[in-house]
Amino acid sequence: MNPSPTALPYLESGREDAALVRAMADGDDRALGALYDRWQGIVHGVVARILRQPNDIEDIVEETFWQAWRQASRFDPARGAVQTWLLTIARSRALDRARAIRRRRESPIEGDDGEVVVQQVAPDDPGLDAEAAERRRVVTAALAQLPAEQREVLELGYYGGLSQSEIAERTGQPLGTVKTRMRLAMQKLRSQLQILRSEGEP
Amino acid sequence: MSDGMTHEAATEALEALALDALDASERAAVLAHVAGCAECQRELAALERTVSELALATSPLPMAPARRDRIRARLMARAAADRAFDAPLADAPIADAPLAKAPLADAPPPPDIVPLHPVRRGMDMSTWMAMAAGIIAIIGMGGYLRVRGERDAMRGSLQVAQAERGAQVATVDSLRASLEEKDRMIANLTGAQVAVMTLASPSPTSPTGRMFWDKAHDAWTLVAHRVPMPKSGRTYQLWLMTPTAKINAGTFMPTPNGEVMMRATMPMSTDSLAGVAVTEEPMGGSPQPTTAPMMVALAR
Question: What is the complex's ipTM, to 2 decimals?
Answer without folding.
Answer: 0.79
